[in-house]
Design a protein that fits this description.
about 1100 residues; about 35% strand; about 20% helix; seven-stranded antiparallel β-sheet; alpha+beta; single chain
């Protein structure tokens, strides 16, 4: 099993000989020269770099950067000489090749520049500056090879910057111009996802483009695609996208000298002091201060609770910090939370007191409206609270403790109507009522968010077991010795990828997370004191978390140093007493300041010096329309950055997450893992990075490919009727039919054998217990298909169906009443549907109808052949939808139009088993005169072809053989490139374009060892081949002994398979790992303790001898 982590090496420079040491003077001259280049002082840079060459005559950096200084002074001939000297000392270095291309381009020799850029881009496929340099040159130069170079560079850039609107628009227009419908569909679907900040006019244009692509009319997409770019050019998102790839400087200087050691940290801390100034005289009490972007201007605003009898929430906007923007009455409140409870993209305010809860719903431009009753919280109260997606279904829930909430109440959010109190079902009984603080954090890094509580007698760790259950792990986790605390916070203090804990009150307590439990951690006497509030942040931008502490005696800021130890930083003008702290970049200068609230009002502590180091601000944006797998701001997701051996980990707790980068202008890798477990990676991210969620199929089913006589092509997906652990509602599991028969379209024998490839390319495990290839001969005028369709709760026998005289329908209308007769006349990849997306993937906003007119009134049973596909939901989405009684969900039914109106003909007609397949439906006799049928459902179904007949020919096909595999080789292959043939077409996969790097987290468990596995597929005996992400099983079926085809007959291949598919979705039953193994006699999955996997000598040998490939939980490190 290949690891699920990323390759950590980004090619920015080739490997160079290591010098014994780098003189300090050389480092100083390098820094001075680069600083002068950055300051647009090339003559001064030239002076410093010539001195550097004298000290280090064998290092290429001095020559390369000197050539940039000379180029900027238009001394092109000497610049070329110097860059060639650099290349002689570092042959093939892509950065230096790019500099050479720049010199040739600016020197008027573009025909010579393009080959240099091409060589550089080939050597550095993961470098955005180098790939964009090639793209820029190739699109402005009309010589030979320019078009191909531009296409390849743009493809690479979109891989590296998949959210960049400038690149996406360029790629979309090029795809339309080239007539590449699949590429255009994929690109404009992504533009639709990322254009949430765009003007409304742009969404209208995107809809026009996608409609044209659905109709396979690329000519109609050209003009709106051009207009879309014109509309977006004036937006901030477009300008930011342009800056991201085209910074507008001549030449990128090299940064590292030979012999400099590999980074183990981001760099040295900056010298930092904090200077205080009064911001408001209004007294603030308790944990009543918080920050977030209320008005969507990408600047952090703040809010606080005033103390006294007439408590209110004061809202301040960074756009006008001279006065409060709003004062919201909140009598009795003592704590303030900020979260987007309704998932509308605007932050809400939650003011909590022992006997009250006040909710204010955020509105555009930073205003708020009362919403306590809307959320059903008018009778609630608490002394502590936090938000979390406890059930991992895409919205934020509310956990309250103390006061009216007693030992704890958990309010489940369904994004519609009042929150539902489920604490009695989820929390352990007899929780402490003296809770002072509550935080949400995945303390054990198992993919679900836990709760840590601070109370008068210590700490409590409530571990999230999923499926709506929390368990007290305080003692097991090493926290039973904790003393009483008024606050607690989690943060990775030592950059090992595990959240540590800091709790405070009469004394500060720190607990180190070892991965198994927490251990007391003595961080020195400098931090001792009576602290009532804390902010953990990187004050000096060195990549280590620092501490801001507030209490009755004032404010202390302690910067972390290696060890770790802590150094107290100078703070001037701080208040004498502090009740609340928050870290916020008030002046947008890339360092975090502090806001301090207390009895004397609000004090601003300006960070002076932190901006001398670099930083990165990361914002997440989840998809809401037609997705809703994660909350919009990604609260509860995790972020990791890697640069060399330096590593940082943070959990997302607000709308923006700040990383200090030391002296590094960027990092090699940024990875976000969303709350549903799907990772997204960015290479060399910009310092102001948005990560917009992609609508990915993280789980569906294993894929089937076949040799078609010319190449290996995608056929369809398998095991759709056998989900293991798929919930359809809380505690209700989908039924499973492990037997399946799939038609293998296009398969051809190769040297006497059929060659089929089964791959697992999603975040799931596949279990194959038995396979056979059915070879079916039939008259050429007879169409054969499998009996396969999904009818929940029903099992259909595996058999081949045959039909003559299939006729297209006379007319067809989609859900919007559009005539789509031509779209469903033949299999051509032009799909018809008409459903409207709800917030949830796979579920329509309302029931929809698809109507067909047969043209005749047979007054008899009719056989329908429906070629189509279904866009699936997943375990977490099913649970979210189950909480929404306003969303109707049912399998498709078939209705017939009679003289009395529409009547139900088949209450459940079934739906296609995943990606495009032919579904055969035999109807009851149609009423006299009836000719119109309609499909009524709530799923995302799309139809490619609908034909019908009354001539059944099931007895005509001949099953020539049911071939057992002659070979079954299991091995690692990787992940095929996904393509969308149409915006409403299924996700298909290009077998010839494969990546060996996994896009998924590891799915732990014991898998089948690589090699020949034919023995496991011969009998249906519960000894399954278990495949994980990236695995491929190549099956060969010997067809050499088959009789020749009779004249006028055709041969069609079917694959019979028995098995199950288990998604790694965090709400899949027993979804934390591959085990427990499914077996045929189980009553359901997951099965209870009264059922066990077979325990026979054969099965014990299977477990010991075959399941020897162990996959452990992985991380980016």
């Amino acid at each position: 099993m290949k690891p699920s982590t990323l390759a950590l090496v980004v090619v920015l420079a080739v490997v160079l000989p290591i010098q014994a040491s780098v003189p300090d003077q050389a480092v100083e001259l390098r820094n001075l020269g680069n600083a002068q280049l950055e300051n647009e002082q090339p003559a001064l840079a030239e002076e410093a770099l010539r001195k550097l060459i004298e000290i280090l005559p064998e290092d290429p950096l001095g020559y390369a950067n000197l050539s940039i200084a000379l180029m900027r002074q238009q001394k092109f001939d000497e610049a070329l000489t110097r860059v060639d000297e650099a290349l002689a000392k570092s042959p093939g270095n892509p950065e230096i090749l790019t500099i050479r291309g720049e010199i040739l381009q600016w020197g008027g020799r573009p025909d010579e520049a393009l080959p240099e850029f091409s060589k550089a881009a080939k050597a550095a496929p993961d470098s955005v500056p180098i790939q964009y340099a090639l793209y820029r040159q190739a699109t402005t130069y009309e010589g030979e090879g320019a078009e191909e170079a531009a296409s390849q560079a743009l493809k690479g850039l979109i891989r590296l910057r998949p959210d960049n609107p400038v690149l996406l628009l360029q790629a979309g227009q090029r795809a339309i111009q080239a007539g590449d419908r699949a590429a255009a569909s994929k690109i404009f679907l992504r533009i639709q996802e990322t254009a949430w900040q765009a003007p409304a006019a742009s969404m209208t244009l995107i809809d026009q483009i996608l409609a044209a692509l659905e109709a396979d009319d690329l000519a109609a997409a050209r003009v709106p695609a051009l207009r879309l770019e014109n509309v977006l050019k004036i937006t901030a998102m477009y300008r930011e996208g342009l800056r991201e790839v085209a910074p507008g400087i001549q030449g990128w200087p090299l940064l590292q000298l030979q012999g400099e050691p590999e980074l183990t940290s981001m760099g040295q801390p900056a010298e930092v002091t904090f200077q205080g100034s009064q911001s408001s005289n209004t007294a603030i009490g308790g944990a009543a201060l918080a920050s977030g972007d209320f008005d969507d201007d990408q600047r952090s605003d703040w809010a606080f609770l005033t103390s006294g009898d007439a408590t209110s929430v004061e809202v301040w906007l960074a756009a006008d910090p001279s006065q409060a923007a709003a004062s919201l009455p909140a009598p009795g409140a003592e704590r303030l939370l900020i979260a987007d409870l309704d998932n509308d993209g605007h932050l809400d305010l939650i003011a909590v007191g022992a006997q009250v809860v006040h909710v204010f719903r955020g509105q555009p431009e930073g205003s708020f409206e009362p919403a306590t009753e809307t959320f059903g919280l008018q009778e609630s109260g608490a002394t502590a609270g936090t938000v979390l997606d406890f059930d991992i279904e895409g919205d934020l829930d509310l956990a309250l403790f103390g006061g009216k909430s007693g030992g704890g109440e958990l309010y489940r959010n369904a994004l519609r109507g009042p929150l539902e109190a489920v604490g009695s079902k989820t929390f352990p009984a007899d929780g402490p009522e003296s809770v002072r603080d509550a935080k949400a954090s995945d303390l054990d890094r198992d993919g679900d968010v836990d709760l840590i509580l601070a109370h008068d007698s210590g700490l409590i760790w409530l571990d999230n077991l999923r499926q709506g259950q929390f368990v007290d792990r305080t003692a097991e986790g090493g926290l039973s010795g904790a003393k009483g605390a008024t606050f607690v916070v989690s943060s990775d203090l030592d950059n090992d990828g595990l959240p540590d804990l800091v709790a405070g009150g009469a004394q500060l307590q720190v607990f180190h997370n070892t991965g198994k439990q927490f251990e007391p951690w003595d961080l020195g006497s400098k931090l001792e004191g009576d602290w009532s509030s804390i902010a953990i942040f990187d004050a000096d931008n060195d990549g280590r978390m620092d501490l801001g502490l507030g209490g009755p005696s004032g404010v202390l800021v302690a910067a972390q140093r290696p060890g770790p130890t802590f150094e107290v930083l100078p703070v001037e003008g701080a208040p004498n007493a502090a009740a609340a702290l928050t870290a916020i970049d008030l002046d947008q200068d890339c360092d975090l300041d502090l806001l301090v609230g207390g009895p004397d009002g609000l004090t601003r502590l300006e960070n002076r010096g932190g901006s001398n180091n670099q930083c990165m601000m990361v914002r997440l944006r989840g998809l809401d329309k037609g997705n809703s797998k994660n909350n919009i701001f990604g609260i509860g997701a995790t972020l990791e950055v890697v640069h060399g051996r330096a590593y940082q980990f943070q959990e997302v707790t607000s709308d923006v997450t700040h990383f200090g980068l030391g002296q590094q202008p960027t990092v090699e890798i940024l990875r976000a893992v969303w709350t549903n477990g799907v990772p997204q990676n960015r290479l060399q991210p910009p310092t102001n990075q948005w990560i917009v969620e992609e609508q990915l199929l993280k789980g569906s089913c294993p894929f089937l490919y076949a040799w078609d006589g010319e190449r290996v092509r995608f056929v369809t997906d398998l095991l759709w009727g056998a989900p293991a652990g798929l919930p359809v509602a809380p505690g209700v599991w989908a039924s499973s039919d492990p037997q399946e028969l799939v038609r293998v379209d296009g398969a051809r024998a190769d040297e006497g054998s059929y060659r089929l490839m089964v791959t697992e390319e999603l975040w799931e495990a596949a279990f194959f217990d038995y396979v056979r290839a059915w070879v079916v001969d039939h008259p050429a005028d007879v169409e054969v298909a499998s009996n396969l369709r999904i009818i929940p709760g029903h099992t259909l026998p595996d058999r081949v169906l045959a039909t003559r005289d299939l006729r297209p329908v006379a007319r067809a209308w989609d859900a919007n009443g559009r005539d789509v007769t031509e779209r469903v006349a033949q299999q051509d990849g032009v799909f018809a549907d008409g459903w409207v997306k709800s917030a949830y993937q796979g579920v329509a906003a309302e029931p929809w109808e698809f109507t067909i007119d047969l043209g005749d009134s047979p007054a008899a049973p009719v056989r329908l052949h429906l070629d189509g596909w279904i866009f699936p939901s997943d375990a977490s989405l099913n649970l979210a939808v189950a909480q929404r009684p306003d969303l109707a969900t049912w399998p498709p039914r078939l209705e017939v139009e009679t003289q009395e109106g529409w009547q139900v003909l088949m209450p459940s007609m079934g739906f296609p088993a995943g990606k495009s397949k032919t579904m055969v439906v035999d109807t009851p006799p149609l009423p006299e005169g009836a000719r119109r049928l309609r499909i009524v459902g709530t799923q995302w179904l799309s139809w490619d072809r609908i034909v019908w007949s009354v001539e059944i020919a099931d007895d005509e096909p001949i099953v020539r053989a049911r071939l057992a595999p002659t070979s079954a080789d299991l091995h690692y292959r990787g992940f095929s490139e996904m393509v969308r043939p149409a915006p409403n077409g299924p996700h298909l996969f290009d077998y010839e374009q494969v990546s060996t790097e996994s896009p998924w987290l590891a799915f732990p468990g014991n898998y089948t060892r690589y090699g020949e596995v034919r023995e496991l597929l011969l009998d249906a005996d519960d000894r399954s081949v278990i495949m994980g992400p990236g695995d491929e099983m190549t099956l060969l079926f010997d067809a050499s002994d088959l009789p020749p085809l009779e004249p006028g007959w055709r041969r069609t291949l079917f694959l019979e398979s028995h098995g199950w598919d288990k998604d790694a979705d965090r709400n899949t039953g027993a979804g934390e790992q591959v085990e427990p193994l499914p077996f045929r006699a189980m009553s359901s999955y997951p099965y209870g303790p009264e059922e066990t996997f077979p325990d026979t000598p054969l099965h014990r040998d299977y477990l010991e001898s075959w399941l020897t490939r162990i996959v452990a939980p992985g991380s980016i490190r």
